[in-house]
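Q: Convert this sequence to structure tokens.
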Amino acid sequence: MKQIVKLAFLLCMCHLQGQYSFTGQSEKNKTVYLSVVEDYRKLSRIYLDQIINKTTSDSLGHFKFEGNNLLGENRIYSIHSDDCPDDAKNTNHFFGRCDNSRSILFLASNKDTITFPATSNFEILCDIISTNKNSDVFLEIEELKEEMIFDFTDFRSEASIKLNSKKWFAKLQDFGKSSQEPLVELYIYDFLSDKRNETHSYYLQDLDKNSYYDELLNRLNSIYPNTSFTQLYEAEIKTDKQLATFSKPSSPNLYWIFPILLGISLILNFYLISKQKASHRKQKDNAFKKLTQQEQKIVSQILENKTNKEIASEMFISLSTVKTHINNLYKKLDVGSREDIKHVFLKNPPRV
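A:
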């Protein structure tokens, strides 16, 4: 009943349709980040190129993200806070890790209202109340994975592992299908097919005989066509099907092909990542080309962390002219601060 009341409150507090609002509880006066996860192989870490917004919690630990700049269809998002500097040169963030990081994954679209309340024990970022019925589904999957681990460790015999693999693959895949959300199924697929997990060997066997994986590809192409995660999934199952075929005992003389197939898989993944980076770079180049020559010079000065006064001295213009140029930059780049300008151009600084 308590959850129903909270959900009703959220619905009443919703803004206009097409706007999102993510609020919650964190530690006080901490930087909180909102990220979109387009690559399902990057679900377990924090990557700078996935961050789309940040805010600072208040003296009571409350934080809020809102606006209308998210996609209208579901995507996997992450909210996290940590003690690491957020500059691009920071080695902890560079490798996707940061000590004392707290995060939560969830599904959302541009019209969702979601809150992340602290528990009665003041545990943060571990509970979700949302207008989107699938927002908290990843928390349910984590509970299922805990049950799965218990089953696997109860008896370690080969027969037990085989039976449990068959049972849990079917259970998790059925759970994903029942959500009617392919992104939930990708989350489960990422876990079951992970080469670091004990499930990987059974995954290759299951892939060879189970039509589920092709059906999932059809669902992804139907709901999320031409997305990077759909293309990545298609490339992976094609490569893994080849691995599954050549890993059969009947083909002992073909083991030498494994390194080649692994190389193909790496090349395909590298191609998709490179394509995504090229798209980001093109967007930055187009944004830079929209600027006048003076505005381009000011962007370069901002990236060098120069103050307005220093920029005016360097360019032999008045301070008010610098401010006028910067206000024009805000409008053209659709940003609201100097830090936002740095975020747009930081990875590929423009040359003037």
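The first helix runs from residue 2 to 13.
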